[in-house]
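Quick one: structure for this chain?
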Amino acid sequence: VDIIGTAKKQVNFLERIHPFICGSSFTLEALEYSLFRYIKLWLPLVLTAPVNTVLVPPVDIAWFWHSHRLCPLQYSRACW
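Got it. Here's what it folds into:
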């Protein structure tokens, strides 16, 4: 596994998505709705998807998912 390359890709992802999620057009209500969708829809989907299933989240869900996985202990508690 190329840890350096993977880390650079993750930083690039966050740099590209940050303006969309934290921009002035993204309201607190929209952010809360995205979090609701992440918790109630995305996490159950991830947990029940067959192994080796490729899941591609919507951009707002991808941001939450990425951020959540940066805290592996909390992520594992939420998922298992």
